[in-house]
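Supplementary Text 2. Reproducibility record for the structural model of the 223-residue chain.

All settings were left at their defaults, and a single model was retained for analysis rather than an ensemble. We include the record here because the model underlies the residue-level annotations in Supplementary Table 4.
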Amino acid sequence: MSILPEKLEQALSLAVATLAVGVMPAPMERDEDRDAALRKLAAVAGERGWSMETLKSVAGPDADLLFPSGVVEMVEAWSDLCDRTMIEAMLDTDEPRLSQRVRQAILLRLPPDEKRRAAAVRGMAVFLSIKGQKAFRRAWLRTVNAIWQAAQDDATGLTYVSKRLTLGSLYASVFLYWLARGSDVAGFEAFVDRRLADVLRIGRIKARFGTGIFTPAASAAAR
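Retained model, structure tokens:
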């Protein structure tokens, strides 16, 4: 299923803009049955799509009862599951540099898994529908926040908001690259590194004027 690049870029721009509010959406309903059903569905969603029929075929005839709000809820819940999986994988990191912990989190959130990437492409088609756009913005806010959580950042106040705005813009470009060319692992990692380097470079400049990106003194934290 193809996605119009212009529509996707517009949706990403709107999602990033919502980060300026600094208020995260409420957590989604979570339980083991929903997670198990989502894992089964995501394994085939790239080929068969996100639908109640596919869900019931892989997770049982009553699996649709797990998602009473329909397909959009399913895709939003899957995004939330991916966020939580990333956070759990980062719990034992011993990387001392914040920028590198952010890098690790991004690469975990967007892995070189073709089934995962194909499922994300089909999921974006759901998110870009009229009924899915608000859900997409909520999911985007949660993911950006989850990356900072995974990176073990504890910023508050204006720094909290500015960091999420910065990461939201960076993650938008990284996400687009991953959707289009994520199968090239080395190329994708190099792209992430370039984007992080750009952000850190700007952060060092801003730090001279008393503001930063990854921390109030961005250059120090990045070392």
